[in-house]
TrEMBL record:
Sequence ranges assigned to domain ABC transmembrane type-1 in this UniProt record: 59-339
Topology with respect to the bilayer: Multi-pass membrane protein
Matches recorded under CDD domains: ABC_6TM_YknV_like
Cellular location(s): Cell membrane
GO cellular component, one term: plasma membrane
PANTHER family per record: ATP-BINDING CASSETTE SUB-FAMILY B MEMBER 10, MITOCHONDRIAL, ATP-DEPENDENT PERMEASE MDL1, MITOCHONDRIAL
GO molecular function: ABC-type oligopeptide transporter activity; ATP binding; ATP hydrolysis activity
Identification of the protein by name: ABC transporter ATP-binding protein
Transmembrane segments: 56-82, 94-112, 184-212, 285-305
InterPro entries linked: AAA+_ATPase (IPR003593), ABC1_TM_dom (IPR011527), ABC1_TM_sf (IPR036640), ABC_transporter-like_ATP-bd (IPR003439), P-loop_NTPase (IPR027417), Type_1_exporter (IPR039421)
Predominant location: membrane
Pfam families: ABC_membrane (PF00664), ABC_tran (PF00005)
């Protein structure tokens, strides 16, 4: 059974009962724990090491050889001390000399290991830095349709967990693998050279040890991964519960949430107990196998000493070599597991890096000059998914400086139109031009830098009010920031706050009212001074006074620039120069408020419905 199915099969019965809950907190594709070894991918992963390996690898290899030679010489010197210095010659001088040499060898071994770790850490950290930067740079360029299909958490996991899981491989894994291989080969040669019978006898236990080490570790690793998955569900639930605490309390769902949490919590504990029990089995099993090896060694060794084939010193040296032999075998098993995890992580990372942004600059694209603001949709058809048109042949003409209100039922295509102006998606058919230039022929940077977007969910970052307004143009002076705030009538409420412009606002501006947040985002947009403004108006109802304030601010904001407003408030719609009524991806009515009211069509129906609702 693959690890993935194993995990999927371990869904908790309590959770299953609650429809959809078991799926609620996990990103399916992030469940993959390991992948078969893929040589091509392995090479690609290690190409990240190439720029640094040239300078540092020779040094690392030198330290590795030095460390291995010194390590393998010590047992030989021990046998010399027993056989020659003690048994044969009884020479204290020789014993001192050998002891001094062993100490010196240990010192060299320690220094070689310290430098080797230092150099490998340098390579490891540089590789991880490059990989993380590549990934981050790339995901920033990916188009909207990529994010449409992916939950933000899944992207986050790539940049954090998956990159971190490679860290160990690059810093220790690879070099340890080389050292272990060199050491193993060295020990096998020495054992067979010293006494092939004893050597072969000891090696009988090797396959058993290797099997235990690899298989058991794999089972333990999966068990811990199950623990991690369960814990990440707990964390996601915790996160959702905190974020949605107001809704939970408003609907008195605290107990229900507690029940969910309890099932998850119990389940996490159960999986932890299981993983921990397996972990505890590992040490004794390895020790028992090692013990069997030692038994064979001493049993056969005693026989060979009696028959005069080997000396006591040689048997002691042999036992030392065998002691050094289990460590690399054990680590190779560990390394194998680490490699499989790294394969899964690197596959997910490369899947992202290979994803091409669907909206890019065309070869030879030129920057668009300062935008005047004449925007034209010419028979625009757009499909998010093939065969399902969200816009069906839109023809629309916006004059420079005009404000256009987009109205229509939910799902009629309003947000789609505003996404297309900034070229967040490429249209399926037709053409969108700005000042007569097809927006696909100009650079994205030059286009988007002249378009300002104010979204419904105004994003307030943690920081001061001043920082939040300045986000519109980072090089704006304090005076410019305040002028923008004054222009949209936000200055008064800001100065009434305890720290004025320096008041720290919590993340997402939770201490600010909806209207205040909106005014701040207007000030931010005004400071950016875009040539085209796109505004997704907030739907929440606010008091009449704030509404008036927002309308006044909006007038300032819209002055001298073309704008598209997804309008929900009657006051905004009424003031727009042009109103476009959308229905199922088509423009059904166009004109100003009075013309459309007279027409007695969809628009007048929508407005009347709004009044009825009020
Ligand atoms: N990312 C997407 N992937 C697939 N289909 C989408 C996507 N975004 C919107 N759609 C579909 O396109 C159509 C138009 O959606 P759009 O968001 O433009 O509507 P809207 O008029 O802005 O609605 P609302 O007023 O509810 O925001 C809808 O049928 C919607 O389901």
């Amino acid at each position: 059974m693959s690890t993935q199915t194993e995990l999927a099969g371990k869904q908790e019965p309590g959770l299953k009962k609650k429809q959809g809950l078991s799926d609620r907190f996990v990103y399916k594709d992030d469940d993959a724990i390991d992948k078969a070894f893929d040589w091509r991918q392995f090479r690609r992963l290690f190409s990240y090491m190439r720029p640094y390996a040239k300078q540092l690898l020779p040094l690392i290899i030198l330290m590795m050889i030095l460390g291995t030679i010194t390590k393998l010489t010590v047992p030989y010197l021990t046998s010399l001390a027993i056989d020659k210095a003690i048994v044969k010659e009884g020479s204290l001088k020789l014993l001192y000399l050998i002891t001094a040499s062993v100490i010196l060898l240990y010192l060299i071994q320690w220094a070689a290991s310290a430098y080797r770790i230092k150099f490998t850490n340098i390579i490891g950290q540089k590789v991880i830095y490059d990989l993380r930067s590549d990934l981050f740079r790339h995901i920033q360029k990916l188009s909207f349709n990529f994010y449409d299909k992916r939950p933000a958490g899944s992207v986050l996991v790539r940049v954090t967990n998956d990159v971190n899981s490679l860290q160990d491989l690059f810093t220790n894994g690879v070099v340890n693998l080389m050292i272990d291989c060199v050491q193993l080969v060295g020990i096998v040669i020495i054992l067979l050279m010293v006494n092939w019978k004893l050597g072969l006898a000891v090696m009988i236990t090797v396959p058993i040890m290797f099997f235990i080490s690899t298989k058991l570790r794999q089972t333990i690793r999966i068990a811990w991964q199950v623990v991690r998955t369960k814990n990440s569900r707990i964390n996601s639930h915790l996160n959702e519960s905190i974020q949605g605490i107001r809704v939970t309390q408003a609907y008195t769902q605290e107990q229900e949430n507690m029940n969910y949490f309890d099932v998850m919590n119990k389940d996490s504990k159960k999986s932890w107990d299981k993983a921990s029990a397996m972990n505890q089995m590992f040490g004794p099993l390895i020790e028992i196998t090692g013990g069997i090896g030692s038994f064979i060694l001493f049993w056969l060794g005693a026989y060979l000493i009696q028959s005069g084939e080997i000396t006591i010193g040689l048997l002691v040296a042999f036992s030392n070599y065998v002691g050094n032999f289990w460590d690399p075998i054990n680590r190779l098993g560990q390394m194998y597991n680490q490699l499989l995890v790294a394969m899964a992580s690197s596959e997910r990372i490369f899947e992202f890096i290979d994803e091409q942004p669907s909206v890019t600059d065309k070869p030879g694209a030129k920057p668009i000059p300062t935008i005047n603001g004449n925007i034209q949709f010419d028979h625009v058809v757009f499909e998010y998914e093939k065969g399902r048109a969200a816009l069906k042949g839109i023809n629309l003409q916006v004059q420079a400086g005009q404000s256009v209100a987009l109205v229509g039922h939910t799902g009629s295509g309003k947000s789609t139109i505003i996404n297309l102006v900034s070229r967040f998606y490429d249209i399926t058919q037709g053409r969108i031009t700005i000042d007569g230039v097809d927006i696909r022929d100009v650079t994205l940077q030059s286009l988007r830098s002249q378009i300002g977007i104010v979204l419904q969910d105004t994003f307030i970052f943690s920081g001061t009010i001043r920082d939040n307004i300045r986000f519109g143009r980072l090089d704006a002076t304090d005076e410019e920031v305040e002028a923008a705030a004054k222009a949209v009538d936000a200055h008064d409420f800001i100065t009434q706050m305890p720290g004025g412009y320096e008041t720290e606002v919590e993340e997402r501006g939770s201490a600010l009212s909806m209207g205040q947040r909106q005014l701040l985002s207007f000030a931010r947009a005004l400071l950016a001074n875009p040539r085209i403004l796109i505004l997704d108006e907030a739907t929440a109802s606010i008091d009449t006074e704030t509404e008036l304030k927002i309308q006044e601010a909006l007038k300032v904001l819209l002055q001298g620039r073309s704008s598209f407003i997804v309008a929900h408030r009657l006051s905004t719609i009424r003031h727009a120069d042009h109103i476009v009524v959308l229905d199922h991806g088509e423009i059904k009515e166009e004109g100003n408020h009075d013309q459309l009211m007279k027409h007695q069509g969809i628009y007048s129906g929508l407005i009347e419905a709004q009044f009825r609702f009020l």
